[in-house]
Amino acid sequence: MMSKIVVVGSGVMGRGIAYVSAVGGYEVVLNDIKEEALNSAKKEIESIFAKGVSRGKITGEQSAAAQANLSYATDLKQVVADADLVIEAVPEIASIKRDIFETIDQFAPGHCRFASNTSTMSPTEIGSYTNRPEKTIAMHFFNPVHKMPLIEIIRGLETNDDTVAFIEGVAGKMGKETVVVNEFPGFVTSRMSALVGNEAFYMLQEGLGTPEDIDKAIKLGLNYPMGPFELVDLVGLDARLNNLRYLHEKLGEKYRPAPLLEQYVKAGRLGRKSGKGVYDYTKKPEEAL
């Protein structure tokens, strides 16, 4: 019986995945190598629970039960020893993912399935880091995880039907809708989002308009819920640049990162998490998008 989920990586996505997993009724351990990162994640998750109760999204009893099922740990080898599902949510860097999947493959029980929250990378390649590629899959969540309704499920070359069905069931308990697609770099959503976001940087670089006007045009003209600059500040300019570099390598010139995006990342303008990205969140935080 499926009961325990380990989420590896306590950044923006990992903490959101841990939240929806706990609300879904699972025993959840959020893992990170840094204690301070876990402390930060714990504070934010508690804030999401408090807001959920105050807005009537969940009851006080549901919040208390979910928080009782949620714990935090730095020892990955120990916490995966009795896991039923491990969801990896670390940066899109192959060497980091390889280290994690080789470790969990060694220490997780044989029945345990592995999912990566990658938005671009190959679940087939990730599965090759393990001795259980048939139990490995991509489970692409969207930010903010507790609000966005979709999980994009991507099967690798060796992923079996049982694993797909298992992940669909887990996603359903998390309250999410799913689409199942076959592997190709960038899948569906990341390919489209990366193109739109990169083109917005080319527009800004060319002086076509201000960030505010470009965002407004996309939101009101194309009915997007967020403008491309609002979105990139939320997900992180460094994360978007990593995705574009991967897609450029795999899919060609149309994904070449805009020089202005590279310049912003070099300057440390990474978005909300650094206080400044396309927009400045330090001067007027009450007006931050």
Report a brief summary of the structure.
With 289 residues, this protein is α/β, with parallel strands linked by helices.
Write the layout of secondary structure elements.
Blueprint: E1 4-8, H1 12-23, E2 27-31, H2 35-54, H3 60-68, E3 70-73, H4 76-79, E4 85-88, H5 94-107, E5 113-116, H6 123-128, E6 136-140, E7 150-155, H7 161-173, E8 177-182, H8 189-205, H9 211-222, H10 228-235, H11 237-251, H12 259-266
Parallel strand pairs: 1-2, 1-4, 2-3, 4-5, 5-6, 7-8
Antiparallel strand pairs: 6-7
Helix pairs in contact: 1-2, 8-10, 8-11
Family: Belongs to the 3-hydroxyacyl-CoA dehydrogenase family.
Pfam family, one: 3HCDH
GO biological process, one term: fatty acid metabolic process
Describe what this molecule looks like in 3D.
The protein has 289 residues and is α/β, with parallel strands linked by helices. The chain folds into 2 domains: 4-182, Rossmann fold, CATH 3.40.50; 190-274, N-(1-d-carboxylethyl)-l-norvaline Dehydrogenase, domain 2 (Orthogonal Bundle). 48% of the residues lie in helices and 13% in strands. It is built from 12 helices and 8 strands. The chain has an 8-stranded mixed beta sheet, with helices on both faces. Helix 1 (12-23) crosses helix 2 (35-54), helix 8 (189-205) packs across helix 10 and helix 8 crosses helix 11 (237-251). The longest helix is centred in the first third of the chain and has 20 residues, at 35-54. The radius of gyration is 19 Å and the shape is globular. The mean pLDDT is 94.
* Main beta sheet strand tally, sense and closure: 8 strands, mixed
What is the 3D shape?
globular
CATH class of the largest domain: Alpha Beta
- The CATH homologous superfamily of the largest domain is termed NAD(P)-binding Rossmann-like Domain
Family: Belongs to the 3-hydroxyacyl-CoA dehydrogenase family.
EC number: 1.1.1.157
Site (Important for catalytic activity): 140
Keywords: NAD, Oxidoreductase
